[in-house]
């Protein structure tokens, strides 16, 4: 039986637990039945070790529930980044890391592998039981670091020479790092850079700040790499409510980020379905980048065109010829001193047009792929909607039924008016 | 790619411990402090014992180290790619800095690779040179804790002048706007940067130290009926608040959300957006705000 460690080898194992604790937080230990009880205990303990200040517990008849509660408006740095700084390693890894960079202390210092091995022995001889690193282990580590761009290898005749990579002359960009580490995709990389600095104090705070996507950073970074290489990928997708993942072969085209619902989607072409589809990034794992595809630019242009009719993340879903578009229009009324309603419509609409009917009435119209996606926004105008039409009558009926249900839920009768 | 031990809290802690030892500070107390500040709750149980018992052969029994120079590591390729990506963002010039040495580096992503589809369209004017200059002055004043003299437009569009003590900058990703949080005068509180017309630092201005007043908090309780995936949508939508959820039965849940009192109208609108699967149960005052809107809607005689 292996002993507990607060570090993890495979991040996927803990990714789903962290999301459950943060997003839901009402499940008891027994309900995490997809893994063993010991696995639950270990993941809970790890999460507590990383995010102790933000963990809460509640007692219910079903047992003790664990939850993570964070007011992200009060946090200068995303607490979830800690989880991405908890990768496990061997005793040899860490020892070798510091010795190698001490040997190769400047880009001007160049050594062959045998020379490096000899120097390593020199570093270790003062210990009681000095570690012994064989040639293959050190070569493997140097190769890994070369791929990460921190070591440079170059051939000189038959010999391979190693040196430290040139560093960039980074100016004082603490403010920019504090800002972008929170709002840019893969912001955790900025957090890694901040870790190199002594002063991490930030003068930035963030409102409407969704922090969960931090735990998807590894997947997101690989998706960006695939897009840069215009490549096909295979990826595991565990849809909502599904027990098992399916392996997909897709061409990633663009990442859609929401700053209002905390979700991120990958828009990708799925050759099997002959369609551009959206995939929740938090459901994706094990991205493998395959060969470049000549179709990338054409498919991305197709997505560009589709975006003119997308309110959210639903693309056409069909071939261009069979494209089905739904029409929606609604009219709102505003009081004499309520110019802000027009400004709200203007700034919040993502597609479509606003028409000023008279000084108190505005009409919004749009053609879109999925009228369902716009319903939550229309509902935010409840109290001033005077007319509404959907080309999809099923959705129109549902919208009206929902309003009726809300009247009934809050006990609003005709007599109240 | 990103989940790698070279970025880990343990490696960072060990680098700092070696630094301290090279500086002649090799007492256990300082080392414990380093681990507490740079790693996790239980790291103390691993990091120091691993160094002391020579599992990690970096500190000898006599508390010296074979490492000769202070540990450093060059910036990795993915870090360079990320830096290049942020340097292409229109907001980067707010910081008035340039990163040299990235000319041959491909960005990790560009604006073509991602799309924020629900951001409001009236964000701050990042290409306006005047705005950029004022942003830099304000940022520098926040960093230096220097009072500021501002001329700004109030809500009624009138120009007002004031002195205030800047505390911090708040950025909303949804609004794409910066706000200055300040103390020290009647206009202090939250000022939208885009409303500021002129600003200058006034280090000589004598302000009594003010504590930044935390906005009053309120709690709203929601009953969620888990249809159309509402539970997940609500929990993700309100994920950035302090909150707690409880299950009532197979289909129903309650969620308590703590929000700033000043954001009440926004909360009402956000909750309305969920329709009949989310009901405000408490407090009655908040419930009445929803009821009022529904009554007004009913009087619109939509159907």
Helical content of chain B (DSSP H or I, runs of 4+): 25-40%
Query: What is the CATH topology classification name of the largest domain in chain B?
Result: Alpha-Beta Plaits
Quaternary status:
heterodimer
Strand content of chain A: 15-25%
Largest sheet of chain A: 5 strands, antiparallel
Fraction in helix of chain A: 25-40%
What is the chain-wise order of helices and strands of chain B?
A: HHHHEHEEEEEEHEEHEH
Give the terminus-to-terminus CA distance of chain B: 56 Å
Radius of gyration of chain B, Cα only, in angstroms? 26 Å
What does this protein structure show overall?
Chain A has helices at 11-24, 37-51, 91-103, 113-124, 135-147, 174-183, 188-195, 217-228, 296-306, 339-348, 375-379, 393-409; strands spanning 55-60, 63-68, 111-112, 151-156, 159-164, 204-207, 231-237, 246-257, 264-270, 275-280, 284-292, 326-333, 353-358, 361-368, 385-390. Chain A is α+β, with helices and mostly antiparallel strands. In chain A, the strands form 4 sheets. A 5-stranded antiparallel β-sheet of chain A has the order 10-9-8-7-11. Chain A has a 4-stranded antiparallel β-sheet with strand order 13-14-12-15. The model of chain A has no long low-confidence stretch (mean pLDDT 90). In chain B, strand 3 (159-172) and strand 4 form a beta hairpin. The model of chain B has no long low-confidence stretch (mean pLDDT 92). Chain B is of the alpha+beta class. At the A-B interface, helix 1, helix 2, strand 1, helix 3 and helix 4 of A face helix 1, helix 4, strand 1, helix 5 and strand 3 of B.
């Amino acid at each position: 039986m292996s002993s507990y460690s607060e570090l993890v080898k495979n991040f996927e194992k803990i990714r789903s637990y962290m999301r459950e604790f943060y997003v839901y937080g009402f499940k008891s230990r027994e309900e995490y039945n997809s893994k063993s009880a010991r696995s639950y205990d270990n993941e809970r303990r790890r999460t507590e070790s990383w995010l102790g200040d933000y963990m809460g517990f509640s007692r219910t008849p079903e047992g003790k529930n664990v939850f993570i509660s964070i007011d992200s408006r009060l946090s200068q740095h995303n607490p979830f980044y800690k989880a991405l700084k908890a990768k496990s390693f061997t005793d040899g890894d860490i020892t070798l890391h510091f010795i190698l960079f001490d040997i190769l202390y400047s880009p001007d210092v160049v050594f062959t592998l045998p020379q490096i091995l000899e120097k390593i022995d020199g570093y270790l001889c003062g210990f009681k039981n000095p570690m012994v690193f064989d040639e293959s282990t050190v070569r493997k580590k140097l190769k890994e670091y070369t791929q990460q761009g921190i070591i440079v290898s170059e051939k000189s005749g038959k010999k391979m020479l190693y040196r430290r990579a040139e560093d960039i002359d980074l100016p004082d960009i603490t403010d920019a790092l504090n800002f972008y580490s929170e709002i840019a995709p893969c912001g955790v990389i900025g957090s890694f850079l901040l870790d190199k600095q002594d002063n991490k104090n930030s003068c930035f705070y963030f409102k409407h700040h969704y922090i969960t996507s931090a735990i998807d950073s590894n997947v997101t970074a690989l998706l960006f790499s695939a897009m840069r290489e215009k490549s096909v990928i295979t990826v595991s997708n565990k849809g909502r409510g599904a027990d098992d993942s399916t392996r997909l072969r897709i061409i990633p085209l663009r990442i859609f980020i929401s700053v209002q619902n905390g979700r991120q989607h990958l828009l990708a072409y799925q050759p099997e379905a002959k369609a551009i589809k959206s995939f929740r990034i938090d459901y994706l794992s094990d991205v493998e980048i395959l060969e470049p595809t000549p179709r990338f630019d054409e498919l991305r242009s197709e997505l560009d065109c589709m975006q003119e009719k997308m309110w959210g993340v639903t693309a056409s879903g069909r071939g261009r010829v069979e494209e089905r578009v739904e029409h929606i229009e609604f009219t709102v009324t505003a009081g004499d001193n309520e110019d802000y309603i027009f400004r709200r419509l203007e700034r919040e609409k993502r597609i479509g047009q606003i028409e000023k009917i008279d000084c108190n009435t505005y009409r919004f119209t749009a053609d879109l792929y999925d009228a369902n996606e716009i319903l939550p926004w229309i509902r935010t105008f409840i109290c001033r909607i005077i007319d509404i039409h959907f080309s999809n009558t099923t959705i129109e009926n549902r919208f009206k039924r929902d309003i009726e249900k809300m009247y009934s839920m809050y006990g609003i009768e005709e007599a109240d008016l | 790619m990103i989940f790698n031990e070279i970025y880990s809290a343990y490696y960072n802690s060990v680098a700092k411990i070696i630094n301290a030892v090279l500086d002649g500070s090799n007492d256990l107390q300082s080392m414990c402090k380093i681990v507490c500040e740079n790693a996790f709750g239980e790291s103390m149980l691993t990091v120091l014992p691993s160094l002391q018992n020579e599992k990690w052969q970096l500190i000898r029994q006599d508390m010296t180290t074979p490492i000769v120079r202070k540990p450093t590591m060059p910036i990795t390729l993915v870090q360079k790619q990320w830096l290049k990506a942020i340097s292409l963002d229109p907001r980067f010039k707010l910081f008035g800095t340039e990163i040299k040495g990235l000319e041959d580096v491909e960005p990790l992503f560009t604006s073509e690779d991602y799309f924020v589809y629900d951001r409001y369209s009236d964000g701050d004017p990042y290409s306006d040179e005047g705005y950029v200059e004022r942003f830099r002055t304000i940022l520098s004043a926040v960093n230096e804790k220097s009072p500021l003299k501002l001329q700004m437009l109030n809500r009624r569009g009138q120009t007002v002048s004031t002195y205030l003590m800047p505390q911090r900058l708040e950025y909303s990703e949804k609004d794409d706007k910066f706000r200055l949080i300040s103390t020290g005068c009647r206009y202090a509180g939250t000022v939208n940067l885009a409303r500021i017309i002129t600003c200058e630092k006034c280090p000589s201005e004598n302000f009594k130290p003010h504590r930044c007043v935390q906005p009053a908090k309120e709690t709203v309780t929601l009953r969620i009926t888990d249809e159309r995936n509402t539970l997940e949508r609500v929990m993700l939508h309100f994920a950035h608040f302090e909150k707690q959820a409880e299950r009532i039965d197979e289909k129903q849940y309650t969620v308590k959300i703590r929000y700033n009192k000043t954001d009440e109208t926004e909360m009402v609108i956000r909750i309305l957006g969920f329709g009949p699967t989310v009901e405000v149960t408490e407090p009655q005052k908040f419930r009445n705000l929803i009821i009022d809107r529904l009554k007004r809607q009913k009087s619109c005689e939509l159907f």
